[in-house]
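One chain given next:
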Amino acid sequence: MAASDFEFTCPDPMDRRAMYEFFDHTADLGIRVRSDDLLTLLNDAARGLFAGIVENLDDVQAVQQVTLSVEGEDPEYLLFDWLSELLHVFDSQRLLLCEFDLQLSAGILRANCRGEPMDESRHRMTHEIKAITYHGLSVVHDSDGWTAEVIVDI
């Protein structure tokens, strides 16, 4: 099933619990995400990525916004490109993102992302994530919902 087969608008991101977890992977870090729909999965994967960068993600304030757009038909590649784009924003602007308003239509993910510049006096940095990898990348849709696993290079 392709990402273009889905059209979603993300529910209120403040009205949900985090649905990601970390798992060990040799010298890297794994992020596993579970959700009822693809858009929430992408939202939670983004939060999981930044929770891997900053320990106190809930203390990051949504005071600056960036707009991103990622195109992809295959959910795995869409997840990979989405997380890579977010990591690029962090690497190039030192911007910690904490809120994501997502829309997915015709295989194009559009996102308004909010956060604030990294401030090491307030933000407890955990991992330096160097890259999103294809190793172990999976997005599965079954009767229980959506599950994704992604390994990030730290």
